[in-house]
Amino acid sequence: MKVSGFTFVRNGVKYDFPVTEAIRSILPIVDEFIVNVGRSEDDTIGLIRSIGDPKVRIIENVWDDRMTRDGEVFRHQTGLALDECRGDWAFYLQADEVVHEEELPRIRTQMEENLGRPEVLGLLFRYLHFYGDYRTLNPWFYRKEIRVIRNNGKVRSIGDAVGFYCTDDPAVKNLKDGPPDRFVRTGCHIYHYGWVKNPRTMLEKKIFQESRHHGVDSESVKRLVTQKEWQFENFDIMKDFSGTHPAVMRERIAGFLPYLSRGSRWRNPRFYAYVLRHGYKG
Question: Which residue among 33, 64, 86, 166 is buried most deeply as judged by most CB within 10 Å?
Answer without folding.
Answer: 33
